Amino acid sequence: MECKAVESPFFSIVTPNHNSGGDLERCIKSLRENQATFEHIIIDDASSDDGFLWAEEQAALDTAPELVLRRNPDNIGPGCTRNYGLSLVTGRYVLFCDADDYLAPGALDNLKAEIEAFEHPDVVVFRYRLHCPHGDMDSVQFCTASVEHTQREAFGDFMRDTIVSSPWGKAIRADLACALSFPPLPVSQDSLYNLDLFGRAERVLYVPAVLYHFDKRSDGSLTRKPFSNQELDKFHRSWQVFEDHYRTHFAAAHGLPLLEVRALRFVGVSFIMRQAINKTQDDSRVRRVILAQLRQSSWTALRQLSLKEKALLISYVLSPPLSRQLIRRSQYAS
């Protein structure tokens, strides 16, 4: 996928929109408190609400020249919609921002200063604030001052989830961002995109600032959908694609322990949490998938998990109802 060879604006923000209502307006306005030049590419993915109409009205009045608006004739999902947005990029760095999320005031100016100070790294990763129904929480503090990491270090941090697997939370050099694409999977397309991204990025800058607001207060959050067998199949299939891609392209350079640790978190911890948060009864099919993954995992991988993650997995093996109680009493049930 190729971008247009235009040097300005400095940033291209790509936003897929689907029935985001008034949140899209909040997203758009959050970018305006910056001096850095930017374009905001918003692709509406066949919404049935009026949220995108407000953006079109602003563009028609010429009050929002930064807006680049397009509509998909049919719903194609966030991954393919982001690919469409990437094909329209003209900026030097790309950020992804979901329509129901928003950036912190001055985030673009902050990032531009860091990018120029560190002589244009391939990727800049930054922190986010999670907004849940019962409170807010900042993401892990992976550094206290801006620091550049090697490709191997950043790749390991991505695989261990120190760097968030979502498309947002990072500024990516445009030629690199547009050389990649989101695969046509129903879920977890962003993990595959980021796997290739950190497999290629040679210079990765870590910035300690909280620059993104991730809003999970809506009942439509993906983690609150019932974890049915159909949902299980989607997530498990996405994991199998991720695993095969890693083994084919990255295992020789980075080894298998990183993959084992990520499998424990994605197939183990994540699947257990999805069941518990949705307050469903323990599903024997989900349990078989989780236990099969645990049997395949080495003690070396298990030792790399946090104490909380180990406790969750052990409690699930011994008593699934106990693990659900532990999760519902924790911050994850927010």
From TrEMBL:
CDD domains registered for this protein in UniProt: Glyco_tranf_GTA_type
Keyword Glycosyltransferase annotated: yes
Keyword Transcription regulation: no
Molecular function (Gene Ontology), one example: glycosyltransferase activity
Pfam name, any one: Glycos_transf_2
InterPro entries given in the database record: Glyco_trans_2-like, Nucleotide-diphossugar_trans
Coiled coil: none
Domain Glycosyltransferase 2-like: 12-129
Keyword annotations of the record: Glycosyltransferase, Transferase
Family according to the record: Belongs to the glycosyltransferase 2 family.
Cross-referenced PANTHER family: GALACTOFURANOSYLTRANSFERASE GLFT2, RHAMNOSYLTRANSFERASE WBBL
Protein name: Glycosyltransferase
Species annotation: Cobetia crustatorum
